Amino acid sequence: MSETIIVALITGGLSLLGSLIAQRRQTNLTLYRIDQLETKVSKHNNLVERTYKLEGRMVEAEHDIRDLKNRREEK
User: Fold this and answer.
1) How far is it, in rounded angstroms, from Cα 56 to Cα 34?
2) How many CA atoms lie within 13 A of 67 on its CB side?
3) ∠23-21-17 over CA atoms, to 5°?
4) Is the pTM of this model over 0.90?
5) How far apart are CA 20 and CA 13, in angstroms?
6) Distance between CA atoms of 22 and 32, rounded to whole angstroms?
7) pLDDT tens digits, residue range 10-51?
8) Chain centre to alpha carbon of residue 61
9) CB-based burial, 18-51: b 16+ in 10 Å, e otherwise
10) Rounded to the nearest 5 degrees, what angle is found at the Cα of 26, between the Cα atoms of 22 and 31?
């Protein structure tokens, strides 16, 4: 084989190897970012659930206060 073909094959092989390594790094970075986003979404969803429960408890507390005021006014 001529030198030109050997150089072209080596260059092509190294180029392919470099592309595969770069793609693998990018994939790992993307997976890391997705994991971080999942963690943030989970924390946010937990906060939303807690807020919903607190709002329900607040409605109950306001209802109890209204009942106590009505009882006091009746006496």
Assistant:
1) 33
2) 6
3) 115
4) no
5) 11
6) 15
7) 999 999 999 999 999 999 999 999 999 999 999 999 999 999
8) 34
9) eeeeeeeeeeeeeeeeeeeeeeeeeeeeeeeeee
10) 150
- Here the tokens at position 29 are 């970075």
> Quick one: tokens of 48?
């939303």
Residue 13, token pair as written in the block: 């092989």
Residue the block writes with tokens 């006091």: 72
For 27, 40, 41, 44, 47, the CA distances from 37, given in Å and listed in that order, are 15, 5, 6, 10, 15
Both structure tokens of 51:
């807020």
